[in-house]
Design goal:
Elements: E1 4-5, H1 16-27, H2 40-58, E2 65-68, H3 71-85, E3 92-96, H4 101-112, E4 116-120, H5 130-136, E5 141-145, H6 159-169, E6 172-176, H7 188-191, E7 195-199, E8 210-214, H8 229-232, H9 240-253, H10 258-277, E9 281-284, E10 294-299, H11 304-310, E11 314-315, E12 317-318, E13 320-323, E14 326-329, H12 331-335, H13 340-343, E15 346-350, H14 357-371
Parallel strand pairs: 1-11, 3-4, 3-5, 5-6, 6-7
Antiparallel strand pairs: 2-8, 7-8, 9-10, 10-15, 12-15, 13-14
Helix pairs in contact: 1-9, 2-9, 3-4, 5-6, 10-14
Length: 374
């Protein structure tokens, strides 16, 4: 089979528009943005233009956008920065059982430093109940961190509803929006969040760049100390090259119209699989409140990795791992109480701007040929 890429949730190719925006800074624009001379001024202007592009995407002020090295740094900064800044106020953070390791691992680290971490459960669709957040809050709670959309099954969380609860209690709300930016609306005031993380390589920018939205007035300690870059919030000489790339990607992400076509392709893919396999294929994640590009399905009684291995040339991700002959479900599927015989056959197909009707038809046909041989 020809090479078909259906792993856009893992990483996206760099968009041609982003490449074009970067090119001047590969050939020139080498000045330090903090320098006051002729070489630094163009670099500084490029960084600030990119910051403005991100602010337009999120519906915030440019001063509330901090460039980072990616989504993991943004998440670490949000969690650790709030924990350090508000240590005199409290020591309790609430998160969920299906967060990305870039949230769960920093929380584990903070727990070793004496913080208390509460992980609320999800239902069988992978969705958090806002009332579980309410019940988890204590007088010592300083932060709630819930991802806007899950990277594995695509389920979208009720962030706006959760924000009503955090605001009632005067608690900061962070969301990891690495998977949602460019796929669904991410205006910070509509969501009601105080902090929001972005990963560039999930929205057609290069790896190595991201951003953290920090609402004006939010107390947060820098994660990286040094000179006073990024308004004193993140030390390190800014890269005009990477900032420009993320800014150009943000402009593309602001237009959600391409998601209509991608959703239609995703739904057609599911319908083809469901029609051919019936009760031998199961949808994982919420049937409605789900990212428009994400299709996580389980082939019942099969091993997802075996199916993918047979689909030579198809890039996608499995929802289980095999260790010494034992199938281990992903933490997300376990948290959703997916049965082992179902979860072991899970595959995540994530579509993107480059996905075509032919791609979907080819992969669906190959799966039918393997699982429904005549």
């Amino acid at each position: 089979m020809e090479r078909i890429y259906l792993d856009y949730n893992a990483s996206t190719p760099v968009a041609p528009e982003v490449v074009a925006a970067m090119r001047p800074f590969l050939d020139g624009g080498y000045g330090n943005p903090s320098s006051g001379h002729w070489a630094g001024t163009p670099a500084r202007e490029a960084v600030e233009q990119a910051r403005s592009q991100l602010a337009d995407l999120l519906g915030c002020s440019s001063e509330e956008v901090v460039f980072t090295s990616g989504g993991s740094e943004a998440n670490n900064h949000a969690l650790k920065g709030v924990a350090f800044a508000l240590k005199d106020k409290g020591n309790h953070i609430v998160t969920s059982a299906i967060e990305h390791p870039a949230i769960l691992k920093p929380c584990e680290h903070l727990a070793k430093q004496g913080l208390v971490i509460t992980s609320v459960p999800v239902d069988r669709y992978g969705q958090v109940d806002p009332e579980d957040i309410r019940r988890a809050i204590t007088p010592r709670t300083i932060l709630v961190s819930i991802m806007q959309a899950n990277n594995e099954v695509g389920t979208v969380q009720p962030i706006a509803d959760i924000s009503h609860i955090t605001r009632e209690h005067g608690i900061l709300l962070h969301t990891d929006a690495a998977q949602s930016v460019g796929k669904i609306p991410t205006r910070v005031d509509d969501l009601g969040v105080d902090l929001l993380s972005i990963a560039g390589h999930k929205l057609y920018a290069p790896k190595g760049v991201g951003a953290l939205y920090i609402r004006r007035g939010t107390q947060i300690e820098p994660l990286i100390h040094g000179a006073g870059h990024e308004g004193g919030r993140r030390a390190g000489t800014e890269s005009a090259l990477l900032a420009t790339a993320l800014g150009a990607a943000a402009e593309l992400a602001a237009d959600l119209e391409p998601m209509t076509r991608i959703r239609e392709l995703r739904d057609d893919f599911w319908q083809q699989l469901d029609a051919a396999l019936a009760d031998r294929v199961v949808l994982n994640g919420h049937p409605t409140y789900r990212l428009p590009n994400t299709l996580n399905v389980s082939f019942v009684g099969q091993v997802g990795a075996d199916i993918l291995a047979a689909l030579e040339g198809v890039a996608a991700s499995t929802g289980s791992a095999c260790h010494s002959g034992q199938i281990e479900l992903s933490p997300v599927l376990r948290a959703m109480s997916v049965a082992p015989e179902v979860g072991m056959g899970a595959i995540r197909f994530s579509l993107g701007r480059g996905t075509t009707t032919s791609d979907i038809q080819s992969v669906a046909a190959a799966i039918r040929q393997r699982l429904c041989p005549k």
